[in-house]
Design brief:
The structure holds 2 protein chains of 2 kinds. Chain A is built from 15 helices and 12 strands. Chain A is an alpha+beta fold. Chain B is an alpha/beta fold. The chains are: A alpha+beta, B alpha/beta. Bound molecules: adenosine-5'-triphosphate (ATP) and magnesium ion.
Chain lengths: 538, 261
């Protein structure tokens, strides 16, 4: 008797509703937390220097590397995955070793890990450092200190070399500009003996001379700085002679204390945030991708935000609520559900080939068939994403405007204000928190979208950033890099997927943090607006 | 029942309504209203729910323009000027004819900004002018003593009665000729109601007031003239005291004695 009545009570009080919605919330939180945890756990530890472990096998051979994971083998026993590096020597970075084969384990203090410009990491032991001219050295053999000193010197050389390279780039840019100007003059039919043409030709020759000089200097410097080498031996005893110049970092993880490791870690994070990518993007920094992502989202907001808000204002405040408005509303809502790749195709057909191609024919006819605007670029990608996100902004803004009581509009109009005044002085400020919500959603969606970008302007490696120091400073026609595409590219398109895995996680972590940071600041802004406009103190 | 005319003639009315018909789409909601509203008097509109009081009131400042499908015929003159004329400057009209709504609708701004809103949109920016107007209007609405220390506080922090008086202050800040009040006290407690009634008594010296109310006592207390509407018809219109003591029409009598509506 007691149980049925308490069950009935349970239903009557509406408890199932509470339980079901609570469970849904919990499941959702778990999902999100799990995703973040996986990304964070895998992404955060990537840069922490791992110990180098040397296994001695029963057959007498020795293997040195970073332990990746231990695994149970079907049929008993365990095996270990070791990152052995030295791709140039062994061909593969990773190796599985049967646990039963291992005779001994040790963590040698003098084991060296090298990050190199090419061929990934090297693990082994330092044998000696040559003299600056590549000679056999001063006889002391050169210990760790000698390597560090040589490395510092190499870094200075690298900076000098980079300066030269920047000079060459500048020269290239000027050359290109001169070439285009010349092209334009000739296209217009200006005669070859025209002083303007002659001037440009002179300039071209001068630039060409400067270019040859710079290249010669740079080549000489490159040869010079490769002279100094260091000798290493791997765990098998094979010798490897490497130019010190090619070493990005050299460290002895087993000899590092916590503090040293932390400094190493921070250095790596700094490189990640501000450095250029290396080795087909699987190493080095993500700076261009971060800049590309942020700028793309920014441009997207510049287009989609005003467009969306104005559309919503028209639909809600000016248009008569008839069949047309209702159809438009349905269409807008459906647009939000169109797969993003469809937008990409549209962007390619309409923006890139349609508008861009036409602008090319109109503005830069002399450069054809080389496209200037008629090819993917950050402008077209942002416009495509703006189209993709504008429904979200429209819907949110419309709801926000619709939630404002009639009395406010009537009160304002009854005081003799125009509709525009009512809109700008009351309705938009009051709707701003809701509009911000739409904006946040749109931004998060745009930052995470990859498919439409792949056909409208994202590239694996962009030669230059869409913002830089050369006028006009913002180059919206340029191709750009993007964190989302980066993940796809290094995770699924790179020849050495296993080696790229850590970078996939770090990039994912970075992308998530970037989205969080952007939405976080927008949410903060919304909170302030809410306090101001909803509580009525503006 | 006496032989007084059911619809009194007002000499030199400020608002002169003649055969005013209003259609919501195809439905006629006002069936030819003809009445004059005297200046500096309080005119009350009474009648059962849905009889067209609000509709008539909103004709005076053309608030019905906001509703799709509203059509008006007949004439409505304010100061001899045709209000329904398509060439009339509605902004100008609404500055001359202020309105206070049934549900107080302060803007989500400070008390001060609420009061000077009408002036600001009219282009007044001088701080001293705004401050003077704010003080004058708040004093006029009997709210000054209560809010003079919290002019910068949110209008939402006021009580219901204070909010309604704030709306009155907001309406009188732009110095209108006519103030329309659509059941201004229906959401208020008796004390706040009494305050607003007193206020109406004071305002009648400066403004022409048209008030819609469901409360017979209130109409009898505050108004000089009363109009009784029924199903879109103006049934009776005359001096308040006379109308309440000696109604000319059967319907009026039934209504004010509470027999229906
Ligand atoms: N926006 C509208 N669209 C169509 N019909 C309307 C509209 N507003 C009012 N009406 C109709 O016009 C008639 C008069 O309405 P009105 O609001 O003027 O009545 P009222 O006398 O103010 O009533 P109450 O005392 O309840 O406020 C009613 O029959 C109502 O249904
Ligand atoms: Mg009404």
């Amino acid at each position: 008797m007691k149980t049925p009545s308490s069950i009935r009570q349970f239903w009557r009080r509406g408890e199932p509703g509470v339980w079901a919605s609570g469970a849904a919330l919990a499941a959702m939180l778990l999902g999100i937390a799990g995703m973040l945890a996986v990304v964070a756990a895998n992404g955060v530890v990537v840069f922490w220097p791992h110990r180098l472990c040397e296994f001695t096998l029963h057959d007498g051979s020795r293997v040195l590397g970073e332990v990746q994971q231990w695994q149970d083998v079907r049929g008993g026993g365990r095996r270990v995955q070791l990152k052995v590096g030295n791709r140039d020597l062994y061909g593969l970075d990773f190796r599985w070793i049967e646990g039963a084969d291992v005779a001994g384990t040790r963590f040698p203090c003098d084991a060296v890990a090298l990050e190199r410009q090419e061929y990934g990491n090297f693990y082994g032991y330092l044998a000696g450092v040559s003299a600056a001219d590549g000679g056999p050295g001063d006889g002391t053999g050169g210990g760790w200190a000698a390597l560090e000193a040589a490395w510092r010197q190499a870094r200075q050389q690298r900076e000098a070399l980079e300066r030269l390279q920047r000079g060459i780039n500048r020269n290239n840019l000027r050359m290109e500009r001169t070439r285009l100007r010349l092209l334009r003059l000739r296209h217009r039919g200006v005669a070859e003996d025209d002083p303007r043409v002659a001037g440009l030709l002179d300039r071209q020759a001068a630039l060409q001379r400067e270019f040859s000089q710079l290249v010669a200097q740079s080549n000489a410097a490159a040869v010079e700085c490769r002279r100094r080498t260091a000798r290493f031996v791997d765990s098998h005893g094979s010798e490897e002679v490497l130019p010190v110049f090619g070493i990005v970092r050299a460290y002895r993880p087993n000899a590092m204390g916590r503090l040293a490791k932390a400094r190493f870690y921070l250095g790596k994070v700094g490189e990640l945030l501000f450095g250029q990518p290396r080795e087909a993007n699987t190493e080095g920094g993500l700076f261009p991708a971060i800049v590309g992502t942020v700028m793309m989202v920014f441009l997207m907001s510049v287009f989609s935000f005003p467009l969306g808000v104005l559309t919503a204002v028209y639909l809600r405040e000016y248009a008569r609520d008839g069949l047309v408005v209702r159809l438009v509303r349905i269409a807008v809502n459906n647009l939000a559900g169109v797969p993003s790749i469809v937008y990409g195709i549209f962007g390619l057909g309409f923006f890139v080939y349609g508008i861009g191609g036409r602008l090319d024919r109109w503005l830069f006819p002399e450069r054809l068939p080389t496209p200037t605007l008629g090819t993917g670029g950050i402008l077209w990608a942002s416009l495509t994403l703006a189209l993709l996100t504008v429904p979200v902004v429209i819907v949110a803004s419309e709801e926000a405007l619709g939630a404002i009581p009639r009395g406010i509009r009537e009160g304002s109009l009854a005081l003799g204000s125009t509709r525009l005044q009512t809109l700008t002085r009351l309705l938009l400020p009051m709707a701003s928190p809701g509009i911000m919500t739409g904006f946040i959603l749109a931004m998060a969606r745009a930052a995470g979208e990859v498919a439409p970008l792949m056909i409208t302007g994202v590239v694996k490696l962009a030669p230059s950033l869409p913002v830089d120091g050369t006028p006009p400073f913002v180059h919206v026609e340029r191709k750009f890099m993007h964190l989302g595409f980066h993940i796809y590219d290094i995770g699924f398109q790179s020849p050495n997927v296993e080696a790229a895995k850590p970078m996939v996680f770090t990039t994912a972590l970075l992308l998530v943090s970037l989205v969080l940071a952007m939405s976080g600041s927008a949410i903060w802004l919304r909170q302030r607006m809410k306090r101001r406009y909803a509580m009525g103190s503006f | 029942m006496t032989d007084v005319p059911a619809i009194a003639q007002v000499a030199a009315p400020l608002v002169d309504i003649r055969d005013l018909r209003l259609y919501y789409g195809t439905v006629e909601a006002l069936h030819g209203i003809t009445m004059g509203i005297a200046a500096r008097q309080v005119t009350a509109l009474i009648g059962p729910s849905g009889c067209g009081k609000s509709t008539l009131l909103r004709c005076l400042n053309r608030m019905n323009d906001l509703i799709d499908g509203v059509r008006v015929t007949g004439s409505l003159r304010l100061d001899g000027q045709e209000v329904n004329s398509p060439t009339l400057d509605v902004i100008e009209l609404r500055r001359k004819v202020g309105m206070v709504f049934q549900k107080s609708n302060p803007f989500p701004k400070s008390v001060f900004e609420n009061v000077v809103y009408g002036l600001r949109i009219a282009g007044v920016t001088r701080r001293d002018v705004l401050e003077d107007a704010a003080e004058r209007s708040l004093v006029g609405a009997g709210l000054w003593d209560e809010v003079k220390d919290r002019l910068q506080a949110s209008a939402f922090s006021l009580s219901g009665g204070q909010m309604q008086r704030l709306c009155i202050a907001r309406a009188i800040a732009v110095n209108p000729e006519v103030i329309l009040m659509d059941e201004p006290c229906s959401a208020l407690d008796p004390r706040s109601t009494a305050r607003i009634e007193d206020l109406i008594g004071e305002l009648r010296a400066t403004f022409t007031i048209v008030i819609v109310t469901h409360n017979m006592q209130q109409a009898a207390r505050v108004s000089d003239m009363t109009a009784f509407l029924f199903e879109g018809h103006l049934i009776e219109y005359g001096d308040t005291k006379r109308l309440f003591t000696n109604p000319a029409c059967r319907q009026t009598e039934d209504y004010i004695t509470g027999r229906f509506g």
